[in-house]
Amino acid sequence: MLDCNFGDDAKRAKTLTKYLRSPAVLVVGCTADPKPSMHDENRDAVAAGIQNMLLGATSLGLATYWGTAPLIDSPRVLSLCGFDADVRIINVMYLGWATGGPDAPSRPPVTLQVVDA
């Protein structure tokens, strides 16, 4: 998902490793619309759909991550993904199995106050 002109050699090498850390990587794009209002609405609808997919996958026990492609309109990247030239990449979705759970945040002790009517 990188064009050879992206960043310096070290940044390119580091970025390339992240695509191998997940069993599944989905690239989601949206076709540009000449009407700005429709373009924005379509892009936002795609983003909402992505969020719903992430929530659904998480509810099934998968680990998820919303990533942003470094190059959203590179002809080489679009071609690699099978997208037409007028598509813009909205999301790179990583799906897999968590190696551990998140740390529970510290919480203050619960206080209870009962008010009689």
UniProtKB/TrEMBL annotation:
Matches recorded under Pfam families: Nitroreductase
Gene3D superfamilies: NADH Oxidase
PANTHER family referenced in this protein's UniProt entry, alphabetically: NAD(P)H NITROREDUCTASE YDJA-RELATED
Nitroreductase domain span: 15-97
Protein's name according to its UniProt entry: Unannotated protein
GO molecular function terms listed in the Swiss-Prot or TrEMBL record: oxidoreductase activity
Phylogenetic placement of the source organism: unclassified sequences, metagenomes, ecological metagenomes
The organism of origin for this protein: freshwater metagenome
